[in-house]
Specification:
By secondary structure, the chain is α/β, with parallel strands linked by helices. 37% of the residues lie in helices and 20% in strands. The chain is built from 14 helices and 18 strands. Strand 12, helix 9 and strand 13 form a beta-alpha-beta unit. Helix 1 packs parallel to helix 2, helix 5 packs across helix 6 and helix 13 packs antiparallel against helix 14. The two termini are 30 Å apart.
Length: 448
């Protein structure tokens, strides 16, 4: 069953433009309610969280109208991280969880992510069925006496804060550590500083003044310069940089140097394997992870299982194989012992736990391996274009693969969240790599 509305992480687009309109949110809410409604039962629950985007109000209200029209009772959490929605869906025995967020995208975008009753994101098949209901308009609204109710839940963030603290080692404290946390003016702007402070850290918070339009703007995991400057200015021990919905993280050491998801996963995988808690001695990551990570893990007798791009595919592979650690270079770190999706805050806590246990500086824990030179360039294209099907682009890709041969690799793909062609390559020869990437980018741009 094909999907057109759903991408690699739910439905996403520019607010007030298809598909992120109030009308479509209403239809999606009604279709999701129809899909999850159990006949003969009256106690249907949906939890809805959101980040701090201005358009979140519009989408939240439209979703609520659609869901209640099918007999679902809606519990509104307000601004909470995406992983909190996964946690609370299961904790509160909801039939469905929904997060309104476009993650690391700018404020003018928004998105809708769905979680099943087990707290995990929906499968491709489930999303396709919901999309089919939208297309068919087979909503089957509830009888007047069975229309659902909606109410605000005041302690949703507090529940998540308390849970996050339980993932930190018992009797370990962060006393004496100065931590910068950049919340990207997003969903974790209250929760993340609270958790770190209550665990004993001296906390310097930035990106904690959302105004509806400044989410991810010159802050957070996709713009670490501000946090780096803050670390140096305050003599901090490290920084945790989250994205808009706090399911991604970048770690900065005491000098402001950035460690991406690959370095974080390398540290956790080696530590967990040493402690006998890395299931199957296997780390799950995507095709985007650096060759240096793969080589480092092999030296530790740890397998690397690669998946398609998107944390949901990482999670699916983890669940299928019984693995408990995975993630993406972009900063999604998935630890199914603790969370059902990427959780930037809890990943940051695991890194801090290693600092506390070893007494090492952040810089000593963020350089597990030397990266193979990697280059990624994005090319925007019009909605009516299919650049990767053009003969000249195919020829440029084939030529690039031949030139790199055994010294590296190419990965060319469409973004699942934005109208971009992502052109990525790796090679021991950085000059050759740049020439190959530029030739492919030029071929894609020529199709415009």
């Amino acid at each position: 069953m094909s999907r057109k509305l759903f991408g690699t992480d739910g439905v996403r687009g520019q607010a007030n433009s298809y598909p992120m309109t109030a009308e479509m949110a209403l239809k999606l809410g009604a279709a999701a309610g129809r899909y999850f409604r159990k006949d003969g039962m009256n106690r249907h629950r949906v939890v809805i969280g959101k980040d701090t985007r201005l358009s979140g109000y519009m989408i939240e209200n439209a979703l609520t109208a659609g869901l209640t029209s099918t007999g679902m009772n809606v519990l509104l959490l307000g601004p909470v991280p995406t992983p909190a929605v996964g946690f609370l869906t299961r904790s509160m025995r909801a039939d469905l969880g929904i997060m309104i967020s476009a993650s690391h995208n700018p404020h003018h975008d928004n998105g809708i992510k769905f979680f099943g009753p087990d707290g995990f994101k929906l499968s491709d098949e489930a999303e396709a069925e919901i999309e089919a209901i939208v297309a068919s308009a087979d909503i089957r609204p509830a009888k007047p006496e069975n229309i659902g109710r909606a109410k605000r839940i005041d302690d949703g963030r507090g529940r998540y804060v308390e849970y996050a603290k339980t993932t930190f080692p018992t009797r370990t404290r962060l006393n004496g550590l100065k931590v910068v946390v950049d919340c990207a003016n997003g969903a974790a702007y209250k929760a993340a500083p609270e958790v770190l402070w209550e665990l004993g850290a001296e906390v310097i918070s930035i990106g904690v003044a959302p105004d509806g339009k400044n989410i991810n703007h010159k802050c957070g995991s996709t713009y670490t310069q501000t946090a780096a400057e803050t670390v140096v200015q305050h003599g901090a021990d490290m920084a945790i940089c989250l994205d808009g919905d706090a399911d991604r993280v970048m770690i900065l050491d005491e000098t402001g140097k950035v460690a991406d998801g690959d370095q974080i996963m390398a540290l956790l995988a080696s530590r967990w394997a040493h402690e006998g808690r890395l299931n199957g001695r296997t780390l799950v990551s995507t095709v985007m992870s650096n060759l240096g990570l793969e080589r480092y893990l092999a030296g530790q007798n740890i397998a690397l299982k690669r998946t398609g791009v998107g944390d949901r595919y990482v999670v699916e592979a983890m669940r299928a194989g019984g693995y408990n650690l995975g993630g993406e270079q972009s900063g999604h770190i998935v630890m199914t012992d603790y969370a059902t999706t990427g959780d930037g805050l809890i990943a940051g806590l695991q890194f801090l736990a290693e600092m506390a246990a070893t007494g090492k500086k952040a810089s000593e824990l963020t350089t597990s391996f030397e990266t193979v030179p990697q280059l990624l360039k994005n090319v925007r294209y019009a909605a009516d274009q299919e650049p990767l099907s053009v003969a000249s682009v195919k020829e440029a890709i084939a030529d690039g693969e031949a030139r790199l041969q055994a010294s590296g690799r190419l990965l060319i793909r469409k973004s699942g969240t934005e109208p971009l062609i992502r052109v990525m390559g790796e090679s021991e020869d950085p000059v050759l790599l740049e020439n190959v990437i530029d030739d492919i980018v030029g071929a894609v741009e020529a199709t415009a």
